[in-house]
UniProtKB/TrEMBL annotation:
Residues 1-25 form the signal peptide. The lineage of its organism: Bacteria, Pseudomonadati, Myxococcota, Myxococcia, Myxococcales. This is Lipoprotein. It comes from Corallococcus soli. Keywords: Signal.
Length: 305
């Protein structure tokens, strides 16, 4: 058994739109407001610092605000409580602080735009996740790691007659998502590769309170156990059923995924590299009369490391 060492590192940064200047460190909140925070600078445990530069962030919801100044190291803004969408635009790039002006290759894997909720009196970080080359573990703001992810979109079925209205906001929509983890432990034995992840972070696009208020809190902080079986080169590898969310939680996510065009190593084990995937997803929600679910088709990418 070994700790997975990947070729990418992840950067999770907190992004908020608030105008062209930073707010006071501890702004006074009015009744009905919450606080969003934005560190744009992060230092890894190895002493390597990164910064996001040149991005514009547009927030829409009960209030609409925009951030165009990313020269500061940290920004925060109060907003009225509610459901929001945030989109990153502009010629953004990531730099190492010891090499200003030199772009670090980075790939955005979070949904863009991404949705979030803000409660009255709450301080809410909103994380856009990037994958970059690098190593180490960062503090709050950016997070640099050796993890993997499952990302793509779920196209949900229309709401059938008699089905619960709790799923009405999702039915017939396509929702982008990412499920990311910082690290994993890998074991190769008995003809399969087992991947046990660190706690996951889940992000969704769209405007579903069911996803943001019930599903995401149920998923975040839990781990995934994935088993990758030997298959014929170029064949389809089906991941065993995955259920994400604490037992008894208000909502949970079920995944049945097929990984396409699998590549095997010299010993016949699946190579841990990014793969295209298809499959089925179900959002299961608890109601007074029991559990109900809404099903959808998943298309996206699975990167074990």
């Amino acid at each position: 058994m070994r700790v997975l060492k990947g070729f990418v590192a992840a950067i999770a940064l907190l992004v908020v739109a608030c105008g062209s200047s930073s707010m006071p460190a501890n702004p006074t909140l009015l009744p009905g407001e919450g606080l969003l925070e934005l560190p744009l600078l992060s230092t890894t445990t190895a002493g390597r610092s990164y910064k996001l530069v040149g991005a514009t962030f547009v927030i829409t919801g009960p209030q609409s605000v925009t951030l165009t100044d990313t020269t500061v190291d940290s920004v925060s803004t109060p907003l009225m409580a509610g459901l929001y969408s945030i989109q990153m635009t502009g010629p953004w790039h990531v730099e190492r602080t010891d090499a200003p002006g030199q772009t670090v290759p980075a790939t955005l894997v979070s949904p863009n735009p991404m949705s979030f909720t803000l409660g009255e009196g709450e301080t809410r970080p909103v994380r856009f996740l990037f994958k970059v080359e690098g190593d180490g573990t960062a503090d709050v703001g950016f997070r640099v790691d050796h993890g993997g992810w499952i990302s793509g979109s779920i196209t949900f079925d229309p709401l059938a007659p008699g089905e619960s209205e709790i799923f009405a906001e999702l039915a017939g929509t396509t929702v982008p998502f990412v499920i990311s983890y910082e690290s994993a432990v890998v074991d190769r034995s008995w003809g399969m590769v087992s991947v046990e992840t660190s706690p996951i972070t889940a992000q969704f696009g769209g405007a579903s309170e069911l996803l943001l208020k019930q599903l995401v809190p149920s998923m975040n902080g839990n781990s995934m156990h994935l088993q990758l079986y030997r298959t014929q080169p170029g064949g389809v590898m089906y991941l065993p059923f995955i259920e994400l969310g604490a037992p008894g939680a208000p909502a949970r996510l079920q995944l049945e995924l097929g990984v396409l065009s699998v590549i095997n190593d010299a010993d016949g084990y699946p190579v841990l590299q990014p793969y295209s995937m298809q499959g089925v997803a179900r959002v299961v929600a608890r109601e007074n009369s029991g559990d109900g679910y809404l099903q959808g088709v998943v298309n996206g990418q699975f990167s074990p490391q």
